[in-house]
Automatic annotation (TrEMBL):
The keyword Oxidoreductase does not apply. This is Purine nucleoside phosphorylase. The lineage of its organism: Bacteria, Pseudomonadati, Bacteroidota, Flavobacteriia, Flavobacteriales. Keywords: Glycosyltransferase, Transferase. InterPro entries: Nucleoside_phosphorylase_d, Nucleoside_phosphorylase_sf, Purine_phosphorylase. One of its GO terms (molecular function) is purine-nucleoside phosphorylase activity. Coiled coil: none annotated. Residues 22-268 form the Nucleoside phosphorylase domain. Its EC number is 2.4.2.1.
Amino acid sequence: MIKYITETVDYLKDKGFDAPEIGIILGTGLGQLINDIEIIKEVSYNHIPNFPTATVEFHKGKLIYGKLAGKKIVVMQGRFHVYEGYSLQDVTYPVRIMEKLGITTLLVSNAAGAINLNFKKAELMLIEDHINLQGSSPLAFNGVEQLGERFTDMSAPYDAAINLAFKSIAAKHNITLHQGVYASVVGPQLETRAEYRMLKILGADAVGMSTVPEIIVANHLKLKVAAVSVLTDECDPDNLEPVDIGDIIGNAAKAEPNMITLFKELIKTL
């Protein structure tokens, strides 16, 4: 993997990706932050050596380098998922690349279903902890110790100072920002009534199909990390209605301006 990482990083540096400070992973329906970025370079994933390619139709496939709020950033416009057939090492490969390019902070967004019935569609949830239900770890491979501590501590995976700043920004701008536990499952199917009940018992406030692998690797690389979910559907097992992916995208779009405000205002403080 070290050889692949070196090839990828060298390619991106040659393309002008110069010492970004902050990495951002944009999730489902959250691509409009790009409009606020002063783009310097952008490269399609399928042109980057050793990079996976996004296969989900509503995920773009570009790595973007530019400036936002005066900071150099690198943005994944579209992410990878285990349900696309990728390994957890593939899914998290871009995080390793962003760290080698120079980032010290990683900000992540995603779409999630609300298990906590006090949370409503198109609201936001700051992730304070998570439950990994993807069946494995992105650190479970031979040679991982060459890239960082194998037995990575996860007692506090989300940066407390960044989370505090997010809460302050949300209060200032009258944005509803819940806090809770995110459960990451494989997907791509949505959950059954029984599975939603199980997740609630386990202590999850929201459920999705991403993010946790990237958070684990970010901690492995000792990056400061924070993540925010857009709540796109309400997962009430006693009143469960069929979910249309179009509705999920629509609810993500409704919440997007608030997500953009949070990210832009936070970056100003970093």
